[in-house]
Amino acid sequence: MVATVAAATALVVGLAGCSATTPATTSGAGAAAGAGAATAGATGAAGPARASDADLWPAGAGFDYQLGGASPVPDGVTVVARDSTDEPAGAGFDICYVNGFQTQPGAVWPESLLLHDASGGLLVDPGWPDEHLFDTSTAEAREALAELQAPVIDGCAAAGFDAVEFDNLDSYSRSDGALDLDDAVAFATLLVTRTHQAGLAAGQKNTAELEARGRDEIGFDFAVVEECDLYSECGAFTDVYGDGVLAIEYTDDLRDTVEGLCSRESTPRSTVVRDRDLVPADDPGYSFARC
């Protein structure tokens, strides 16, 4: 398997890695927070302790989720998440999106590291049929997958991002029983350890069922959550990460209105409402509002 990993690394990084650019000098939580500012998730009044000593953003910072393409940063926003193939926004705190538990469309991975269905075909995510699930069922496979993801993580650091968000942590729930939550925890722990070694914070994506295991066992520093208001599960994340929760709701499936969302005490302070496809600002389908 080591030979297979070595042969595939260049293909995976070329399709899924960050571009290697000079780190932005304006990036970083310190620039956004200022001296002595309360920081999300810090020990004490600002919220529960984080898993590492990584600096985050000021509590209640404005947030935008730009996975569908980079846009000018809206006024008041200092935390921006972008795909690993985009440049960081440089507005304060930059998060690098990495598809941690499934393949990106078009990326080439060794089939031995992907899940197969009963007929021997590759298992796909029903919601994203061009994405295949990683096989995290064994320690050997997890180590090989983490080795392939390491250059992507390093690319995020080289580009000037402050953190990595690992998507599809909940892929085990779409594995037809081949994987379980413990498999996800074991693999996530490898990814987070590697991320901290690169000097970056690490973000949990969704997966409320992790409860405190995400912080205490895996080592996540913050959480990026979709539609926690819609599904009434925001407390599962804020109870663990305090103000270190970045929340996204979508215009096509709000519980009521933006005003209603932002008035609820359970809504994380750093919440954005976006169009479902997260298109750039110059697209007619673009929508942005924040609490």
What descriptive keywords fit this protein?
291 residues, alpha/beta, TIM Barrel, nine-stranded mixed beta sheet, two-stranded antiparallel ribbon, 7 helices, 27% helix, disordered N terminus
Short overview:
The protein is of the alpha/beta class and 291 residues long. The protein has helices spanning 2-16, 29-33, 139-159, 181-197, 213-218, 234-241, 258-263; strands at 62-66, 77-83, 93-98, 124-125, 128-132, 163-166, 201-205, 222-226, 245-250, 270-274, 288-290. It is globular and about 50 Å long.
Structural commentary:
- The protein has 291 residues and is of the alpha/beta class.
- A 9-stranded mixed beta sheet has the order 1-2-3-6-7-8-9-10-11. The protein has a two-stranded antiparallel ribbon with strand order 4-5.
- A hairpin with a 2-residue loop joins strand 4 and strand 5.
- The radius of gyration is 18 Å and the shape is globular.
Spell out the blueprint of helices and strands:
Layout (H helix, E strand, L loop, with lengths): L1 H15 L12 H5 L28 E5 L10 E7 L9 E6 L25 E2 L2 E5 L6 H21 L3 E4 L14 H17 L3 E5 L7 H6 L3 E5 L7 H8 L3 E6 L7 H6 L6 E5 L13 E3 L1
Parallel strand pairs: 1-2, 2-3, 3-6, 6-7, 7-8, 8-9, 9-10
Antiparallel strand pairs: 4-5, 10-11
Helix pairs in contact: 1-3, 3-4
